Amino acid sequence: MPELITIIYLIYSFLAFYFLFLFVIIYAKNKDRIFYVPRITKNYSLSIVVPCYNEGKSIGGVIESLLDSDYKGLKKIIIVDDCSTDNSYKIIKSYAKKYKKVIVVRTPKNTGKASGAKNYGAGFVDTELIGFVDADSYPKRDAIGKMIGFFDDNEVAAVTASVFVKKMNKFIEGLQSLEYRIIVFTRKLLGFVGAIYVTPGPLAIYRKKFFDKVGRFDENNYTEDIELTWNFLSKGYKIEMSVPSKAYTVVPDNFREWYRQRIRWNIGGLQAINKYKKTFARSGILGSFVLPFFVLSWVLGILGIGILVYRGLRRIVINYLATKFSISAQTAILTLREINLTPNVLVFFGTAFLILSLSFTILALFYTKEKEFKKTRILSILIYSFIYLLVYPFVVINSVIKYLGKKQKSW
Fold first, then answer.
1. Is residue 188 exposed (0-12), middle (13-18) or buried (19+ Cβ within 10 Å)?
2. What's 246's DSSP letter?
3. Burial code of 189-201, b = ≥16 C-beta within 10 A, e = fewer?
4. Which sign does the torsion angle of CA 292, 298, 301, 307 carry?
5. Higher confidence at residue 45 or residue 403?
6. Are strands 238-249 and 156-165 parallel, antiparallel or unpaired?
7. Is the pLDDT of residue 8 over 90?
């Protein structure tokens, strides 16, 4: 058993170092283009669709942030109320009466999912581009304008933005802020090799004819933004990212809501993997890189926590048995001869990877620092790295169990 664990650990170390160095190489080659934004050469017509269900507290602010956009080609802001039971519909109608650009529509019946509301709203769009913004997300004034230039490449189907946490009043929100900033950095690096695997709901813009051609959002998938992105990649279309385009979103402010959100995200990922599994290890960026990367990142997380738990439990059991035997035999529990100060190769790999990972995290945070918020403390980075990330593999495992149970959930 120890030999098997050692082999698994070495495989884990190889894969972990491989992906880490891959990101480092991509960064070194493209660091001068991270904030690149192509200039606008054409005033593409654009409609933004906002799906809404019981978002009375935030929908007004979202509409105002879109009305404040400096992009002149924004023709329509279509708010889709999915039969809310709060005052959302009333608030939306008040904006529609005041601004011609704001259009309010309501689904015939509650679709029970954001994708359903999005697809319904898409039926009212006749512009060249169609964008989507969540009902609790706030794009900055210049965000949309800095995304449009990428569409001059006729093969580009979608452009995504940088998503940041809007408020950090609670500690868990602060940890998610670190996570979102690191995701922004790594997603842009993936973009340099054509491997952006999701266009998040807080702000994403699509070429309307491609959006319609692939069948719009899959309403059976929990994470319709991942599935649609994979659909585009499977057809050979390009996905781009504009780092300077910023959208701020509200994140869960307690562990329970955070856990439910991550379960939903992971189940959606599993649904997408199952749908596109036939492309695995085949030609095309989806099968040759995105899908393997997606799967291996989960495997690495589960393997890593599994090895950690095994080694910890093994040490506890051995120490317990040794102590019990020593007490019963009335011998010394620990002698100087048994103290081994020789570094183990596995410990060396683990320490080296830890140092490199922390360095990469700090680099990512440097590139995504926000003037509006106070500087990130080292303690927060350590808690994020050694506690927050260690919880995630357990979420993945539970997601797999729930996915196999086939339990469906709405909004």
1. buried
2. E
3. bbbeeebbbbbbb
4. negative
5. 45
6. parallel
7. no
Look at residues 161, 84, 90 and name the one whose alpha carbon lies nearest to residue 117. Answer: 84
Domain 44-279 homologous superfamily, CATH? Spore Coat Polysaccharide Biosynthesis Protein SpsA; Chain A (3.90.550.10)
Distances (CA, A) of 177 to 99, 139, 162, 369, 371: 33, 16, 12, 10, 14
Q: Is the pTM of this model over 0.70?
A: yes
3-state per-residue secondary structure call for 55-94: CCCCHHHHHHHHHCCCCCCEEEEEEEECCCCCCHHHHHHH
SS3 state of residue 259: helix
User: Which tokens sit at 15?
Assistant: 């894969």
- The rounded distance, in Å, linking the Cα atoms of 131 and 207 is 9
84 touches 167 (CB < 8 A): no
- Amino acid identity of residue 305, one-letter, is I
- HSE (CB half, 13 Å, CA atoms) of 80? 28
Q: What are the structural domain ranges in the chain? A: 2-27+290-405, 44-279
265, 223 Cβ separation under 8 angstroms: yes
Query: Tell me: the pLDDT tens digits for 314-334?
Result: 666 665 555 555 555 555 544
Q: Which residue from 395, 390, 385 is spatially nearest to 364, judged by alpha carbons?
A: 385
Angstrom CA distances, 34 to 29, 80, 186, 268, 348, stand at 10, 34, 11, 29, 33
User: How many percent of the chain have pLDDT more than 70?
Assistant: 84
Where residue 369 falls among pLDDT bands split at 50, 70, 90? Answer: confident
The dihedral built from the CA positions of residue 399, 401, 402 and 404, taken in this order, carries a sign that is: positive
Candidate from 107-116, 192-201, 220-229, 338-347 with smallest mean pLDDT: 338-347
Q: What is residue 339's three-state secondary structure?
A: coil
pLDDT of residue 20: 87
Q: What are the angstrom distances between the C-alpha of 320 and each of 1, 132, 310, 325?
A: 20, 57, 15, 9
CB 226 within 8 A of CB 197: yes
